[in-house]
Amino acid sequence: MTTQKGATEKDTGGTAGSPLGKAFIGIAGIIGAGKTTLATALGQHLGLDVHYEPVIDNEYLADFYRETKRYSFAMQIYLLNRRFQQHQEIIWRGRGGVQDRTIYEDAIFAKTLRDMDLMDNRDYETYVNLFRNLSNFMCRPNVIIYLDVKPKTSMERIRERDRGIESGITVEYLTRLYNNYEEFLHEISRLIPVLRVHWDDFWEVERLAEAITREYMRDSFLREVAQLA
Fold this sequence. Notes:
Layout: E1 24-28, H1 35-46, E2 50-51, H2 61-66, H3 68-93, E3 97-100, H4 106-115, H5 121-135, E4 143-148, H6 151-161, H7 171-188, E5 194-198, H8 205-216, E6 222-225
Parallel strand pairs: 1-3, 1-4, 2-3, 4-5, 5-6
Helix pairs in contact: 3-4, 3-5, 4-5, 4-7, 6-7
């Protein structure tokens, strides 16, 4: 059942009777946080479709990293379009899903690019207005899981996965993203429940799924999920 509050009502008829069985779960976090790893594991654990961030088939990505200022606006519009399509697909299918980075986070990257003088302010305003228009047609996820990873840890993970096009990413850029995420969390948590998970150290997915389910059922709008010893 579609609602304005979220993609689906809480449903106890999902995989293994999980209340998250038909939920729309967004995984949020800066570059290198571990979103894809968690999205895959969580989707398998809960029996939910996983919708990945467009990376391999992103035709702007290489150009963006090579000439960021020139391609920043085109890159953000491309991602906004793809993520809107993905977001709506999750809603239309009506069976929930896990999304590897939400559409709401794109604005964080656009703002960071603008703040670093890597996107023209006119282009940024055009982007923001387009996002606002699209948001009028979007049902909200049931919950956003924010993977809280410090920029230093993020940088280490980016180096470990060794994607050549990411070699130009700096700690300064990641720090700006991290700070803008903090602002974003306070804003989005007024509309969508957010679970902040300290993710510098990976959890066992079963324990995390249990913690997410527990906190999700409390209907709180900004909670921290701590890993027990």
